[in-house]
Amino acid sequence: MGLMKRVQTIFQAKSNAALNKMEDPRQTLDLSYEQQLENLTKVKRAVADVATARKRVEIQAEQLKAQGDKLADQAKAALGQNNEALAREALTRREAVAAQLKDLDTQHATIVEQEDKLTETAQRLQSEVEAFRTKKETIKASYTAAEASAHVSEAVSGISTSMGDAGAAMQRAQDKVAEMQARSGALDELLASGALTDLTSPSDDIQAQLDKAGASSNVDAQLAALKAQMSEGGELASGEGA
Q1: Mean pLDDT, residues 147-169 taken together
Q2: Which of 31, 65, 204, 207 is such that its CA lies 20 to 30 A from the CA of 14?
C-alpha cells in the first residue's frame, strides 16, 4: 500500500469515527423510514398504473364484444334479405374482431398477473414498513433511555470526582487549622513561661521589676511617715494630761 493510499485510509477512518460520533441513530432511523415510505408509494403507484392498464384492456374488450355481437346480428339480417355476400362480409369482420378480442384476453391475463404480483409486493412491503416503524420507535425509545442514563452516569462520575477533590481540599483545610492551632498553643506556652517577651505588654520584664521595687519603696516611706505621725500625736496627748 502506497503512502497516499495509507493517508486516505487513515483519513477515511477518522472521518468515519467523526461521523459516528456526530450521528444520531434516531434521525438515521427516521430518514430510513421516510425512504421506505417513498419506495412503498412508488410500488403503490405502479399497482395503480397496472390496474389502469387492465381497465383499459377490459373497456376495449367490451367494445370489441359489442362490435362482434353487432356484426353477428348484421350477418343474420343480411341472410334474412338473401344477401349472402353481405352476410359473409359481416362474419369475416366478426372473425377479425374475435381475433383482436383473443389478443386482448391474452394481454388482460398478463396484466392481471402483473397486478396480482405487484399488489402482493405492495402488501408485503406495507407490512414490513409498519413493522420497521414499530421497531424503530422501540429502538429510539431505548436509545433515548440509554442516552439519559449515560448523561446521569457522566453527572454522577463528575460529582464523584468533584466530591473527591472537595474531600481532599477539606482535609487540607482541617490540617491547616490544626497546624495553626498547634502553633498558637505553643506560642501561648512560650509567653506564659517567659521564654518570649510579650510584645503586647507596655514594658519589658526589667522595667516591671524596677516598677515593683519603686512601688515597695513608696509603701515603706508612707508607712514610716504614718508611724511618725502617730508617734507625735501620742506625745502631744501625754503633755496635755500633765
Answers
A1: 74
A2: 31
